[in-house]
Structure formats: structure tokens, C-alpha cells
Write a structure and sequence with these properties.
The chain has helices spanning about 5-20, 40-50; strands spanning about 25-35, 60-70, 70-75, 80, 100, 105-115. Helix 1 (about 5-20) crosses helix 2. Helices cover about 25% and strands about 30% of the residues. The protein is elongated. The protein has a domain at about 5-70 and about 105-115: hypothetical protein PF0899 fold, CATH 3.30.2320.50. By secondary structure, the chain is α+β, with helices and mostly antiparallel strands. The structure holds zinc ion. Zinc ion binds near residues 77, 79, 90, 93 and 95.
């Protein structure tokens, strides 16, 4: 389960960002997870309470996952297609030679701040 270590890093980064900006409460953490990143979003939801344990800044915080489709451009026929849905093969010509256009990322997209009071 490599999701937990990468999630812990994202949580630590968000916590540090909050401290640096005098933010006392984070209301939500939004992660952008590409379909081709190898990470399974359901595990992030599962581990979020563990990763944020003993971090008061995350009390009541929500985790949002934005899934980014894995898109590729076929090097043979220039068709654009979804890598996951087509099992890595171009649906037009069957070639596996491709340029990945997106969907490999994992990043913290947004740190939501709770209004004071
Ligand atoms: Zn093709």
C-alpha cells in the first residue's frame, strides 16, 4: 500500500503550509490523482483518518479526490484515447506506441481553510 506514504507526505505538506500561514483549521484537502499514477483513490479515503491522526489542524477536515483521466496520443495514427479504457492500446489501429498526455500526476490541488469562529 504505497498510498499511505504518499498521502502522509501530502498531509504533512498541508499541515506545514497551514502552520506557515497561521491557519488553525483545514476544512478540506483536495488531491489530484491521475488514473495512470498507480494510486487507488479508495485507499486515500481509507487512510485519511490515520494520516491526520494527532494533527488538530485537520479536525473535521474532508478529503476530496479529483481523478484525472489517463489520456494518450497514438504515435502511429495520432488518435487520442483513454489508456485505461483501451488497455493501453490504440482503439483505432491497435498500436501500443503512444505519448502519454496526462493522468500520471499526484499532487495537492487545494488546501481548504475553515473560517475562524
Ligand atoms: Zn493508433
Amino acid at each position: 500500500m504505497h498510498e499511505i506514504s504518499v498521502l502522509q507526505k501530502a498531509v504533512d505538506l498541508a499541515e506545514q503550509t497551514a502552520i506557515d500561514n497561521n491557519i488553525s483549521r483545514i476544512s478540506c484537502l483536495t488531491l489530484e490523482v491521475g488514473e495512470l499514477s498507480g494510486y487507488v483513490p479508495v485507499f486515500f479515503h481509507k487512510y485519511f483518518p490515520v494520516a491526520t491522526e494527532n494533527k488538530p489542524v485537520f479536525e473535521g477536515a474532508e478529503l476530496n479526490i479529483i481523478s484525472v483521466p489517463g489520456e494518450a496520443l497514438c504515435r502511429e495514427c495520432s488518435a487520442m484515447y483513454n489508456v485505461m479504457r483501451n488497455e493501453g492500446k490504440c482503439p483505432k489501429c491497435g498500436s501500443r506506441s503512444k505519448k502519454i498526455l496526462g493522468g500520471q500526476q499526484f499532487r495537492v490541488l487545494e488546501i481548504g481553510v475553515a473560517e475562524p469562529g
